Amino acid sequence: MRARRGRAPHDWDQASRQVADAYFPHELRPLGGGREPRLTLRTLDLGPVLVGHVGWGADAGIECDYPGAYEVNLPLTGHLESRGARGPVSSVPGQGTIFRADTPSLISHWDATCTVLGVKFDSAWLDRESERIIGTDRSGLRAELPDQLQLDAGRAHAWRQVVGSLAAHLQNPDLFSDVGPVREQLAGAVAAGFLLASCPDSGEGAPARPRSIRRLLGELHDDPGRAWTAVEMATVAGTTARRLQEGFRRWVGTTPTEYLTDVRLRRAHADLVGPAAPTVSDVAARWGFSSASRFAAAYRKRYGRPPSQARDWHVDA
């Protein structure tokens, strides 16, 4: 991961170069009398996914072709006016503007008070994820994506929460920098959440069948500590992530991720009350949790006590 730091530039050319280095080359046009920018730019790099805060601190217009990557801009403050494939789009907090890869686009007004949470996806990678997650190829994805995403409910709200949790670590740019599998898992989660939230279900294709689900269940029980992604689980089941979720809900009564978390927690609990007395951090890492704090929160929710009390609780019981 990487973060952009340092003194905010007060020169339009310098500010433009910094944003171009992090996101995309573009044509930047100051609006409203040429007020100097006060750039906000902090990013976390997950490989094929880049998450960051961007704000110009002054009114601006931007022309960009979004070469090689999709972009989703979620205003945290202010408003963002642009022209999408289907007409004008104006986004405020609670909404997100979607820009398609390799498509000339215009942001007609990025207002001075607007800071966005920007999510950039490598286009070739997201196209492949789209085929495996929702069964839509490159041309289909570009046709299905809306110009704007409402983030106040359902899957879109859940995706916004995931992205927001990553953005909370912008002050800690080295988080997971040396743990490749965790970065891949986080990038996959961001992609899966975005695709499932933004692309409507055509209703084509049957949910995963019991035989496919049993095959996946066997793999999850054999190796629950693996850095599983939604795509990898769907590949094992021989279907898309969307159809796998439908089949899991129908035949198992939960989602694949929830089921995997339960398996991991049961294995972790057995370790904590066993004779080896491992640390909470060691148990979290062994069973595929991205951090000890996330493991502790899931454990407390499942068992009603923190993992540090597992042994005492077991003895008392």
Automatic annotation (TrEMBL):
The keyword Transcription applies. Residues 214-313 form the HTH araC/xylS-type domain. GO terms for molecular function: DNA-binding transcription factor activity; sequence-specific DNA binding. Keywords: DNA-binding, Transcription, Transcription regulation. This is AraC-like DNA-binding protein. PANTHER family: HTH-TYPE DNA-BINDING TRANSCRIPTIONAL ACTIVATOR EUTR (PTHR46796:SF12), HTH-TYPE TRANSCRIPTIONAL ACTIVATOR RHAS-RELATED (PTHR46796).
